[in-house]
Amino acid sequence: MSRHTTFKVGGPARYYLIPELAGEVREALAFADAKQLPFMIVGNGSNLLFADDEYPGVVIEIGESLSGFSTTGECEVIVEAGMRLTAMASRLAKMGLAGFEFAGGIPGTVGGGITMNAGAYGGEIKDCLKEVTVLTAEGEEKTVAADELQLSYRHSILQEKDWIVLSGTFVFEKGEPEEIQAKIRELNEKRREKQPLEFASAGSTFKRPEGYFAGKLIEDAGLRGYAVGDAQVSEKHCGFVVNRGEATAEEIHTLIGHVQQVVKEKFDVELEPEVRMVGEF
Fold first, then answer.
1. pLDDT digits over 212-253, tens only?
2. Residue of 154, 167, 234, 251 marked active site
3. Is the CB of residue 79 less than 8 Å from the CB of residue 123?
4. Is 201 a known active-site residue?
5. Is the pTM of this model over 0.85?
6. pLDDT at 137 over 90
7. 3-class secondary structure for 238-280?
8. Among 3, 72, 166, 207, which is least packed by CB within 10 angstroms?
9. Catalytic pick from 201, 204, 234, 251?
């Protein structure tokens, strides 16, 4: 999985399937069911930490081959789950559709973005999402309105259900392409200045605790640059744990736990990982 995640760590998966059509996603689920194995959905591999040992199940990649984009009205689009958020933002900008600029630098896919209600710079997926089409674990395709998804900070009901996002329907406002593209460039420049994009990571490691900023707590705890092997609290932005090159998943996991422990001891604040842990640690 080190070849399929933005952390660049993780052991092998027993099976790795890449559906090229929506119907093949159903076939992949049937395969996992026939083998009596768990399954895991990945997109661009961000926000995930796979353990160093084998994942004893089926990994299903909803990626580039399932990244269709179509319009259903002047300001409404349907986007398949495998399209990258950055590509979607760029395409919308060229069409003069505003409201998705915040996602222009988020390293994930539409499916993952919907599942975790991805957001940045004051914007969130829930701000523009109308409905999603999902595939249930039983192979049933259904459409669910956005207000039924319990979308909140980095959360949706999809995280508790074995539903696979196939596509999302989004609604935007008309704008000027040049202004929208300029806004995306501005936000991406902020990312380059403040985030450790030169190192492999899973994005922000921790959710924002109510009333605090995770990065500030970690810095005030004296953990800037603290490392376990090649896993390190970023010196550029303490809210990121990065892989300096040869980190193992176990080192990253140990470092995350250490940060949680120290912040709890010093400030009595529980840091909840935004990164999803997969496998045995």
1. 999 999 999 999 999 999 999 999 999 999 999 999 999 999
2. 154
3. no
4. no
5. yes
6. no
7. CCCEEECCCCCHHHHHHHHHHHHHHHHHHHCCCCCECCEEECC
8. 3
9. 204
